[in-house]
Amino acid sequence: MGACDSKPAPKPKPKGPKKELTFGKDPNLNIADFMLKEAKGETLVRTDLKGQQFLIEDSSDCNVYLLDKLAALTVDSIKNCVVVTGPVEGSAFLRDCENCTFVVAAGQIRTRDCKNCKVFLFSGTEPVIEASKGMEIGCYGLQYFEIANHFEKAGMSVFNNKWSEVFDFTPAEGCTSKNSSNWKAMDMATRNHEEFMKALVEKEPTVAESVGLGSGGVVPITHGRGKACSEDAEGSCLLLIAAPSSDFGRVLTKLLEWEKKMEKEALLVRSRKVALTKEQSTLCFGREADKKKKSTLIKECSQVKGEILALEFNVLGSSGADSVKEILKEEALSWIAEGEVAVDQSKNLFSVWKEDQ
Length: 357
Hints:
Elements: H1 2-5, E1 35-37, E2 43-46, E3 54-60, E4 63-66, E5 73-79, E6 82-98, E7 101-112, E8 118-123, E9 128-130, E10 135-139, E11 142-143, H2 147-154, E12 167-168, E13 183-185, H3 192-203, H4 205-211, E14 214-215, E15 236-242, H5 248-261, E16 266-274, H6 278-285, H7 296-302, E17 308-315, H8 321-333, E18 340-344
């Protein structure tokens, strides 16, 4: 009787992928191997961080190269240092830093009580500064041997860099976050990221050769929100590429080659790579001026399954906006094996679903 009423043993649940243990939980890792503390005048190069978090604190006049995928980065109380990192999958916290230069890629970044620092930045979300002054922020432009692999492992799209979309929690009196005097965007047209990396390579030639350190890399150099035209200005141009995901590696390679060549005709302001539903495409790209007529852009987007890459340009060319737009479209068509390319003036994509992209 009891045997008949007994329930069958539950089936074992399938095991998911094994998560990486942080150094606080993995007995095989020593916490001291993942921090730099109370250092002065040291050069540290690490390419074996095993996806762990890293801590830098109470140090001065140091050069720190963390060229691997990291779980998180925390920097506290440093002066006159250079900190260069690969992709930080989670958060990067910079606190009480003074006269430092950072080359950092992170899912999100926050600074607090920082003074006179330069940050060459990749941020997957809007960067946040708090109680910080004299901050200069520009686009991340780093190259080392494994950088593409590390971005992929971190699950970070190189197209989704929001470095210029800074939110200031503590703007000066009379200012807002949008016109904050606590930070300014670097003029990326001056190629200052290249000059900085060139100086680093000359200063540390042995380090540079061993890890392939240099400028360029896999992140498109965007000129930032401050270089954007008004929403429907003639010089505003949104290049949309709808293609299978397998094509985007080639698109990236060609874009990196091409954006330097075209910078006198069109500045790449921002980029996004995202999967949109048909309804989202309509919301982003529907033409308010003619609601009865379906936008050709929406039609082209809906015909291709896969992700959509949006590239916002500020057209500068003396040949005229229409001519440059045609050049952009023809060039982009040569980058993909299949799919669609279209040009539109609306930039609503960059103000809708901020954190989803």
